[in-house]
Specification:
By secondary structure, the chain is of the alpha/beta class. The protein starts with a helix and ends in a 10-residue tail after the last helix. The model has no long low-confidence stretch (mean pLDDT about 95). The chain binds acetyl coenzyme *A and butanoic acid. Acetyl coenzyme *A binds next to α5, β17 and α14. It catalyses: butanoate + acetyl-CoA = butanoyl-CoA + acetate.
Length: about 450
Amino acid sequence: MSLQDQYRSKRITAREAARMVKSGDWIEYGFCLAAPRAFDAALAERCDDLTDVHIRAGVSVYPSLAFESDPTGERFTWNSWHFSGLDRRYASQGSAFYIPMRFRELPRYVLENQPTDVFVTQAAPMDRYGFFNFGVSNSHHYGLIARAKKIIIEVNEHFPRVHGGHGHGIHIDQVDHIIEGDNLPLAELPPASVSDVDKAIATQVLAKMHDGDCVQLGIGGMPNALGRMIAESDLKDLGGHTEMIADSFVDMFQAGRMNGLRKAIDRGRIAFTFALGTKRLYDFLDENPFVASYPVDYTNATEVAGSIDNLVTINNAVEVDLFGQVCAESSGTRQISGTGGQLDFVIAAYRSKGGRSFICLSSTYRDKAGNIKSRILPTITPGGIITDTRATTMYVVTEYGMFNCKGQSTWQRAEGLIGIAHPQFREELISKAEAMGIWRRSNKR
Ligand SMILES: CC(=O)SCCNC(=O)CCNC(=O)[C@H](O)C(C)(C)COP(=O)(O)OP(=O)(O)OC[C@H]1O[C@@H](n2cnc3c(N)ncnc32)[C@H](O)[C@@H]1OP(=O)(O)O
Ligand SMILES: CCCC(=O)O
């Protein structure tokens, strides 16, 4: 059968696809930008016929009409590999839950531990070789393709066609059904503006960077603000090896800072596993041989990322305690985001010859009531999740300075981390450190 005949025989409407879902099914939506739109809307129409349907997603960027059609949580349960603001909102309603995940391991979870009745993902229209490209969300999709009982592709003409190492598309032979979607534009996450705190942190990180470094930037406002400041620096020959690619990589490339020519692997290319940014980024990714989309168990593998010399990883955190433990994902028991790839890259940076990992955070945070709170705390807020254990943490950076935790004893960590806390909180932190037995009488105050 020709590719076009196959395409016609597999094409169905979104409603026909949604009618295949049964009560009790586990459905996985494409990761982040690749979550389906038309299928989700058609599934919402089936709300009254179904019970106990489980939807899995990650870094959700499109409101789910299906989930929102069921205020009881008895028909649809939402399960997320990584919370976005939308996932946080769903969780606060009581029927959405976080799935603990170390991102590099995710393909194996879906290959071995998670049933998947239906995998449905958006992708670019079929190319002349019969491939549907989903390179903006490569992630763990190959694992789902291997295990899902039914694979449905929702075609979207706005999807860029992204070059890849592997895992960035699916051939029509492996697809069960094709939906021609509504061609809605991809969600956009505009870069946050660069604050004075970001500038103070960037100045310190830039002082530790060299020509030829290979950069990973984590999710969130601060790492990407730092990326923009790297674009404005005079560094040259930088490389990119990251999990999420954001607009700041376009800045670094277009400013002539990043060419990847000193990388030992994927030379001359930025390796990444998913994209989230603005249309400018999606246009940059389209047919661009400078980028390579890979599954997450390649980008985030410590043995892969760590094999690149001078890997510099820049990630954000919610809290750091005086032992150097990093909480990057919760506030007490309230899940904010997820472990994601942070631990993967913190470990990889230390494995890399000349590598450096930077956990960058503002020294304070204003809570919902307007009170200023220190992010450097004696201990992580009770119930908080440790994303990076104290032995894995390297540099912690605030607008007041930088401290390298590696090899430092508990009293040195207390002194060093209090030294980069906001001055208003230092005396209180010293008293707590004394009470915890990690303050030496001769420590510098
Ligand atoms: C992507 C890669 O290449 S791999 C590695 C990257 N992955 C990670 O680092 C995973 C963990 N890190 C993260 O998810 C992010 O960096 C974060 C959450 C630390 C920061 O992300 P941002 O989007 O910049 O956070 P932002 O400042 O908007 O805050 C997000 C939420 O946390 C809340 N929050 C932030 N700090 C605190 C705090 N100290 N206490 C309580 N709540 C807090 C905010 O109020 C906001 O909640 P709301 O939107 O529901 O009101
Ligand atoms: C899981 C995607 C984002 C992250 O690593 O933080």
